[in-house]
Structure formats: C-alpha cells, structure tokens
UniProtKB/TrEMBL annotation:
Cellular component, GO annotation: endoplasmic reticulum
GO terms for MF: oxidoreductase activity
Record InterPro entries: NAD(P)-bd_dom_sf, SDR_fam, VLCFA-Steroid_DH
Protein name: Short-chain dehydrogenase/reductase SDR,NAD(P)-binding domain
Source taxon at top rank: Eukaryota
TM regions (residue ranges): 6-24
Keywords: Membrane, Oxidoreductase, Transmembrane, Transmembrane helix
Entries under SUPFAM superfamilies matching the protein: NAD(P)-binding Rossmann-fold domains
Similarity annotation: Belongs to the short-chain dehydrogenases/reductases (SDR) family.
Amino acid sequence: MDLCRWPGWTAGLVCAAVIVRWWLVPWALWLGRRALCWGRYAVSRPRPPGSGGPRRPRPSACPCCGGVDFDGMAGRWAVVTGCTDGIGKEYALQLADRGMNVALVSRNANKLRDVAREIHDRHGRKVRTRVVVADFTSAGRGPVTLTETFESVSRGLAGLDVAVLVNNAGMANAKPDRFTDMTAADGHGIVECNALAAVAMCRVVIPLMSEGGRRCRMLFGDDGDGDDEHLTLLLSTTPEPPPPTPDTRGGVVVNVGSASFQLPFPTYAVYAATKSFLEKFSVELAAEYDALNGQPTYCSPVAVRCLTPGVVATKMTRMRPSGDEGPLTFLPGPRAYARHSLRSLGCHCACRLIRRDERTRDDRETGTAGARGSPRDCDREGVLAGVLSAVFDSPSSPFSVGCAGVTTTGYLPHTLMMMMGHAVVWTMGRSFLSNFVYEYLSRTRDRIVRRNAKKAEEKAAKI
C-alpha cells in the first residue's frame, strides 16, 4: 500500500516545490522590496533647506523596482526613431510633454517637420527639437550606403545630452506570406530596419549617454577592416561630448519589439525572428550596461528595457483601435499604448516620491522652481492604474513577460494575452497554437489578395 502512495506524494512535493520556486518566492521578494521601500520613505525625515549641497548622482533606474525616472530627465534629450506615425510619434509627443527635448529620426523629412511643428505648437520654446533624416533600409538608396546614413545620424546627434533612446523604427510584411513567397528585398529590408538599425543606434547614442564618451569607445573597440559596410560605423567622427554633471549622466534605451518573439507567428517568419533578436540583444545589453547589475563599469549607468506589445492599431497593422482611451481594450491606439508603456517603465515605489521631493527642495534652494515642466494631465496615473502597472506591467514584476527586469509588454491586456497564449501552449502544445495562427493568417492573406484584385479590376474598368 505504501509503495502505491509514494508516486502521488512525490508528484505532490514536486508540484509544491515548483509553486514555491516560481510563484511564492518571487512574489515574496517583490512584495518585500516594495514594503522596505515604502517603510523607508515613511520613516525618513525631510532635509532642511540649505543643508544638502550639490545633488547626488541618481541612477537611470530605481534600485528598488527598476523603474525609469522619466520626470527627472526634463531638459535633456530623447532620441526617437520611426517617429512620423503611430507609436513612435506618440512617444515623441509624450516625452516632450514631460519636458524633454526630442531628436526626431526618420526617413520622411516632411513628416518629421510636421511632428516638430506639432511639438512646437504645444510647448513653444520650452521644448527644443532636432530633425535627423535617415533611411535605415538600403533598398533604392542608390550610391548612399548604410554606413554613410549612420555617420550622418551620428553627426546630427553630436553634442546632445541624451537621456532616452527609443528604437521604434520597424517594418513588416505588407501581408501574411510564406517565407519563399517574399522577395529578397523585402526580407533584407525587414532585417535592416528591425535589427541592424537598433544595434547601430545603440552604438551611436550610448556614448552620448555615458560618462565622457572616450571610455565607451574603448569598450566598443575598433571598427575593424570595414569589409561589411552594414556594420562599419565610424564613431570616431562623433565629437567628444562634454562631461556630464552628476545629476544628468546615464540614460535609458527602450527597444520596441513584439509579442511574436515568444508566441507562434507563422507567415511572418523574418519579422518575428528580428523581434526575437531585438529581445535577446536587449537582455545582453542590459547585462553590460544596466544600472542594477551592481558591477563596476567603465560607463555611467545605462538602463536597457524592451517592450513587446501585441497588436496595436497603427498604419503598419492596418487596424482601427477598439477604444483608444480604454485601459482594458486588446487593440489600443498608439496614444493609449505609448501612455501605458511609459507608465509601466516608470518608477512604482516610494523612490519616485523621494526624488520628487528632492527635486522640489533643490529647485527652491536654487531658485529654479517651475522651470522643469510637468507631465500633462493625460500622463498622470491614478492609484488603480499605478497599482495595475506595478503588479502586471513593470519589468521587475513576477508577472513580467520575458526576461525579468528588462522585458515587458507595457500594456495589461497584452500581458494577459501572452499569459493565455502560454497556457494554450502548455496545455495543447505549441504545434496546436502554431497551426491555428497559420490558418487564421492564411485566410487573412487570401482576403487581402481578393480585395486588392477587386480594387485593381475597378481601377482598370474606370480607365
């Protein structure tokens, strides 16, 4: 009888160990850090005016929750790629609303000027903009190479005190297609825009975030013999940036990926592969430069985060939002997603209040109160929204999708969607979900082909 019971007891102990290891321990540690942080804030005493001296160096990410102090970066520069439409444009506008100057990088000069004009209309001279025209794909560029493009980007950003880099530029298939049905130019362009551009922009901008700049170039190493023109980025053309002050050093890199890096996404093989590369690149870059690793580095703290959204209603997805302002819609618009993702990457513990109080006291002592600017009302989170972001969307949360501390969907419904996808994979198998997605996308492709054929017939009939 005892021999018949021990397999059940063993299975029960294994399940209990898994639950404790993967659920109870992370939650206990996460709640413990939050409790210690809020307790420290509750028992702290306010600093009397005039007793502080110069501001202390502040890391780019909170040491308690890993959140980014966007409010403390007012007056510095944010570099946003792919910012003429969709999510990228909203990032540029909302970072400008937080008091940051914005460097706009994209390939359409007219649309870049329109975005810069919109920022100027909203903020006047309080927020500066800089337009950098760059095409991250080599298709149809003629004699201009990608190396020359990134050299021009490097020159355009030279001398800026950069605090935020948002690698949002990306492209996908025009419609769901099997890999062999894609043209070589389409596949090459997706790899260049989604993967190579992010790597190159990090290499250009991270020295501008880091202390001095010379030490960072020592870490990057020489450019080699330059056999591959796509990887030869001559950073020696970048002037030495001025030494940053203790309060403004470091920054954060935000790579915008996709939920397709974890869930099956057939008919978008190249696109999904580049987003998987971007997530892995973010994780390894964070291990080198993240302010939370506790290891001495040659550079000032540079935090790296990767956003992996689901479907967002943009021109690339050709979808309409089901509710742009709703917090629980599975198909948000660009404005809603950008707002929620910036909130999820922010600080969710008492350190945010401590930094705010320190900035207020320092500004009063120096006579610069009110010069920093403040976020607009649409970016101020309520208590419930802040709790949901901290519990589900913060990169340090146990619910975080992907690598803890680095990756998050940035949007609660997309986090729930990823959880449901993983549950289906665990119960039914990955092949079941992959076949289901393939059938759905294949039918979508057929509808697109029929619609395009019908439009072509109508156009020919009019002629």
